[in-house]
């Protein structure tokens, strides 16, 4: 399986990359780790005349933790994210989730930016970024703009990013909240049947804030405010967890596919969320 | 589509060629350079039979364009045995029956090499997690894990003796 032909570009700065994107419109796409787009091109599910490889754009590789502001460059790989101790300290849920993505070979090349920009409901980082309340920074010929991760996903493979914009980095707030990313997959390296990202803060044995997001249970990741609200003010007891699960069920809309029928997915979603809440609470 | 000038260093030897951008690295290695150790198992980025070491990372050569690898240093199974015989990993796979048909073995050993570079003292669980991108249809993995653990032990003993 060899993709059909295209022109390859390898610019070394952002303005040049954007210029090539502008010139070729929707015939062009940026290439990050290639581990989503190359399989799609092999299957002829993506047909592109120009690929713009971002590997030489050094600014996209930067990671910084300054005070409570964490910035992750779009071209940082999952493996680099996992091995970065400053990141693991600032937001430990990042490492926990990244370790559950794909397999070692894929994590060496698959990037955080590619994972969130791709728009595939199966990707794990979009739900995670919604849970964290991340901000995506987009750069195009009209300059830079910021989009809330919770506003970014419109439908499968449809996002708020314009065709001629490049995601440059992701901003999140450092967090000491209790955390968990819980994922059910058929085998290692598989996309989620269902996954849950949870952050919980507590004071005096009561939940003071909770953020909950679900992966691969709708055509976009789902940030369930209802599920988070159901925990706030409670001692995270069984009744509160059941209400959170009920609220989450009202927000998701799974499809039947090769990972199972709808009832099964709802069952797995409930189990993942219960486990994630329990683990996050134990760490809060 | 215009061809590109591509330079690769494979197992210490430089190669230059003209290739279409869509050419996958696995085909460049196997068909142009006759380096047929890295195998094509699935072609869909799942099995790891095509694993090569590219700039110090284990990657699936079926999911990388040769153009992306332009300028890279690559190590394949052909680069393991030296003038003194087999590499420790190869030797331990042989000794512990870490292979049956052998189809997955070049990818297994190339991946295991990088795993042990990064983590010279892995637990059995870390070996299994670190090898999760390589599938084997024959062995049931038990002996692959055993071979890698044995290679790690021998490499560490050799390192200590040298110190
Ligand atoms: C066997 C296998 C298993 C996998 N399992 C999982 C899994 O369990 N969970 C998971 O989340 N993912 C999984 N993946 C996907 C993997 O994590 C991808 O690497 C990731 O989705 C995309 O990252 P990439 O860098 O490879 O992007 P690419 O494939 O290069 O790009 C993907 C898309 O995003 C666009 N894009 C990339 N970077 C930018 C940018 N900076 N700005 C704008 N657009 C951009 C590209 O144009 C393209 O359309 C798996 C992949 C494989 C091959
Ligand atoms: S042939 Fe590359 S992963 Fe199977
Ligand atoms: S030995 Fe046959 S596939 Fe592994």
Task: Give the helix/strand layout.
The complex is a heterodimer of chains A (about 280) and B (about 160).
Chain A: E1 7-9, H1 14-24, E2 28-31, H2 37-42, E3 50-53, E4 63-66, E5 69-73, H3 78-83, H4 85-90, H5 93-98, H6 104-109, H7 112-117, H8 125-132, E6 135-140, E7 143-148, H9 149-152, E8 153-155, E9 158-159, E10 166-173, E11 178-184, E12 194-203, E13 206-215, E14 222-223, H10 225-231, H11 238-251, H12 262-283
Parallel strand pairs in A: 1-3, 2-3
Antiparallel strand pairs in A: 4-5, 5-10, 6-7, 6-10, 8-9, 11-12, 12-13, 13-14
Helix pairs in contact in A: 10-11, 11-12
Chain B: E1 4-10, E2 13-19, H1 25-32, E3 51-54, E4 57-60, E5 73-75, H2 88-95, H3 105-118, H4 124-130, H5 142-162
Helix pairs in contact in B: 2-5
CATH domain class name of the largest domain in chain A: Alpha Beta
Count the strands of chain B? 5
Proportion of β residues of chain B? Answer: 15-25%
**Residue-averaged pLDDT of chain B:** 97
Helix content of chain B: 25-40%
Beta-strand fraction estimate of chain A: 25-35%
* Unreliable stretches covering 5 or more consecutive residues of chain B: none
Alpha carbon gap, first and last residue of chain A = 48 Å
How many DSSP H or I helices of chain A?
A: 12
Rg of chain A from C-alpha positions?
A: 19 Å
- What profile does the largest beta sheet of chain B have? 5 strands, mixed
The count of strands of chain A amounts to 14
Concise synopsis of the structure shown:
The complex is a heterodimer of chains A (284) and B (163). By secondary structure, chain A is α+β, with helices and mostly antiparallel strands.
Describe the model:
The complex is a heterodimer of chains A (284) and B (163). Chain A has 284 residues and is of the alpha+beta class. Chain A has three domains: 7-53, Uridine Diphospho-n-acetylenolpyruvylglucosamine Reductase, domain 2 (2-Layer Sandwich); 60-173, Uridine Diphospho-n-acetylenolpyruvylglucosamine Reductase, domain 3; 178-283, CO dehydrogenase flavoprotein, C-terminal domain (Enolase-like, domain 1, 2-Layer Sandwich), CATH 3.30.390. Helix content of chain A is 36%, strand content 26%. In chain A, the strands form four sheets. A five-stranded antiparallel β-sheet of chain A has the order 4-5-10-6-7. A four-stranded antiparallel β-sheet of chain A has the order 11-12-13-14. In chain A, strands 1-3-2 form a three-stranded parallel β-sheet, covered by helices on one side. In chain A, strand 6 (135-140) and strand 7 form a beta hairpin. In chain A, helix 10 (225-231) packs antiparallel against helix 11 and helix 11 crosses helix 12 (262-283). Chain A is globular and about 55 Å long. The model of chain A has no long low-confidence stretch (mean pLDDT 97). Chain B has 163 residues and is an alpha+beta fold. Chain B folds into two domains: 4-79, Beta-grasp domain (Ubiquitin-like (UB roll)); 88-162, [2Fe-2S]-binding domain (DNA polymerase, domain 1). Helices cover 36% and strands 15% of the residues of chain B. Chain B has five helices and five strands, in the order E-E-H-E-E-E-H-H-H-H. Chain B has helices at 25-32, 88-95, 105-118, 124-130, 142-162; strands spanning 4-10, 13-19, 51-54, 57-60, 73-75. Chain B has a five-stranded mixed β-sheet, covered by helices on one side. In chain B, a hairpin with a 2-residue loop joins strand 3 (51-54) and strand 4 (57-60). The mean pLDDT of chain B is 97. The interface between A and B is medium-sized, with 28 and 32 residues. The structure holds flavin-adenine dinucleotide (FAD) and FE2/S2 (inorganic) cluster (FES) (2 copies). Flavin-adenine dinucleotide (FAD) binds next to strand 2, helix 2, helix 7 and strand 10 of chain A. Chain A: Pfam families: CO_deh_flav_C, FAD_binding_5. Chain A: Keywords: FAD, Flavoprotein, Oxidoreductase. Chain A: It comes from Marivivens donghaensis. Chain A: This is Xanthine dehydrogenase family protein subunit M. Chain A: Residues 1-177 form the FAD-binding PCMH-type domain. Chain B: Residues 4-80 form the 2Fe-2S ferredoxin-type domain.
């Amino acid at each position: 399986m060899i993709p059909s032909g295209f022109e390859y570009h390898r610019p070394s700065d952002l303005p040049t990359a954007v210029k090539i994107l502008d010139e070729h419109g929707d015939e062009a796409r940026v290439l990050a780790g290639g581990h989503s787009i190359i399989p799609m091109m092999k299957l002829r599910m993506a047909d592109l005349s120009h690929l713009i490889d971002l590997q030489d754009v050094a600014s996209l590789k930067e990671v910084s933790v300054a005070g409570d502001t964490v910035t992750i460059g779009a071209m940082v790989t999952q493996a680099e994210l996992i091995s970065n101790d400053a990141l693991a300290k600032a937001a430990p849920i990042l490492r926990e989730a990244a370790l559950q993505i794909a397999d070692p070979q894929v994590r060496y090349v698959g990037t955080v930016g590619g994972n969130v920009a791709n728009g595939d409901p199966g990707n794990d980082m979009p739900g995670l970024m919604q849970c964290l309340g991340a901000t995506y920074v987009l750069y195009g010929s009209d300059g830079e703009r910021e989009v809330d991760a919770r506003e970014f996903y419109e439908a499968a493979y449809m996002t708020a990013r314009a065709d001629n914009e490049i995601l440059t980095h992701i901003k999140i707030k450092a967090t000491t909240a209790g955390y968990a990313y819980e994922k059910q997959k058929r085998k290692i390296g598989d996309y989620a049947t269902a996954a849950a990202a949870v952050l919980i803060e507590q004071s005096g044995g009561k939940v003071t804030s909770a953020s909950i997001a679900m992966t691969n249970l709708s055509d976009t990741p789902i940030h369930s405010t209802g599920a988070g609200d159901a925990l706030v003010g409670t001692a995270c007891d069984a009744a509160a967890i059941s209400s959170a699960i009920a609220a989450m069920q009202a927000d998701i809309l799974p499809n039947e596919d090769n990972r199972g029928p709808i009832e099964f997915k709802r069952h797995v979603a409930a189990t993942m969320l219960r486990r994630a809440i329990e683990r996050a609470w134990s760490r809060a | 589509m215009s061809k590109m000038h591509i330079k690769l260093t494979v197992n210490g030897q430089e190669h230059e060629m003209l290739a279409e951008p869509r050419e996958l690295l696995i085909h460049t290695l196997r068909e142009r350079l006759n380096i047929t150790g890295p195998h094509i198992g699935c072609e869909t980025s799942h099995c790891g039979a095509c694993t090569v070491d590219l700039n110090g990372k284990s990657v699936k050569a079926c999911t990388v364009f040769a153009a992306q690898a332009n300028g890279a240093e690559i190590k394949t199974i052909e680069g393991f045995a030296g003038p003194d015989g087999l590499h420790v990993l190869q030797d331990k796979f042989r000794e512990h029956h870490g292979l049956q048909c052998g189809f997955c073995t070049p990818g297994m050993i190339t991946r295991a090499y990088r795993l042990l570079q990064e983590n010279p003292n892995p637990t059995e669980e870390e070996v299994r997690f670190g090898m999760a991108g390589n599938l084997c249809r024959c062995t049931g993995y038990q002996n692959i894990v055993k071979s890698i653990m044995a290679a790690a032990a021998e490499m560490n003993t050799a390192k200590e003796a040298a110190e």
